[in-house]
Amino acid sequence: MEDPEPAGTAAPPGLSSLLPPREFLRSRKGQLLLAEAVLSFIIFICYIASLAASFMMAPLLEFLLALFLFFAYASKLNEKFKGAHWPLADFLRCVTAAIIYFAISIAAVSKYSDGASKAAGVFGFAATIVFAIDFYITFNDLVTFLKQGSSDSPEGRKTEDEDSDSDSD
């Protein structure tokens, strides 16, 4: 019989390498992105089964965007590609998703009488809340991101140079 692998060795590459790390799944951002993807998929399925099938494109796009950002943040693409403004893109995605979900949920609940439309509307209101929480948290990240960017500007460096020159006198 083979000895089990020591606890310090890594698992061989395979299907488990596609799964996000546990630290990310436990993080607030990971849980929010996962909730957004799951809710968007459920809403998409509900709209397919309902009379309000014309609303199915918004949840599909939000599902794909949430899934992309989930794996982008999990694989730390935001740290590898500094040229993209990740917090701004995430903030805009969350704001537009919250507004769109709120609007189509009101329309689905008030205009259509079938159960799938009502369920999509209820899940849409839940998704609106999740996206609103995410854009509130992302807004705080965006503010710190923009403050870092302004300190890297030439004006920010010039005042720092002047301060260091006056300190050396």
Automatic annotation (TrEMBL):
<feature type="transmembrane region" description="Helical">
    <location>
        <begin position="120"/>
        <end position="139"/>
    </location>
</feature>
<dbReference type="InterPro" id="IPR050578">
    <property type="entry name" value="MARVEL-CKLF_proteins"/>
</dbReference>
<keyword id="KW-0472">Membrane</keyword>
<dbReference type="InterPro" id="IPR008253">
    <property type="entry name" value="Marvel"/>
</dbReference>
<dbReference type="GO" id="GO:0016020">
    <property type="term" value="C:membrane"/>
</dbReference>
<keyword id="KW-1133">Transmembrane helix</keyword>
<feature type="region of interest" description="Disordered">
    <location>
        <begin position="149"/>
        <end position="169"/>
    </location>
</feature>
<feature type="transmembrane region" description="Helical">
    <location>
        <begin position="56"/>
        <end position="74"/>
    </location>
</feature>
<keyword id="KW-0812">Transmembrane</keyword>
<protein>
    <submittedName>
        <fullName>CKLF3 protein</fullName>
    </submittedName>
</protein>
<feature type="transmembrane region" description="Helical">
    <location>
        <begin position="86"/>
        <end position="108"/>
    </location>
</feature>
<dbReference type="Pfam" id="PF01284">
    <property type="entry name" value="MARVEL"/>
</dbReference>
<feature type="transmembrane region" description="Helical">
    <location>
        <begin position="32"/>
        <end position="50"/>
    </location>
</feature>
<feature type="domain" description="MARVEL">
    <location>
        <begin position="24"/>
        <end position="143"/>
    </location>
</feature>
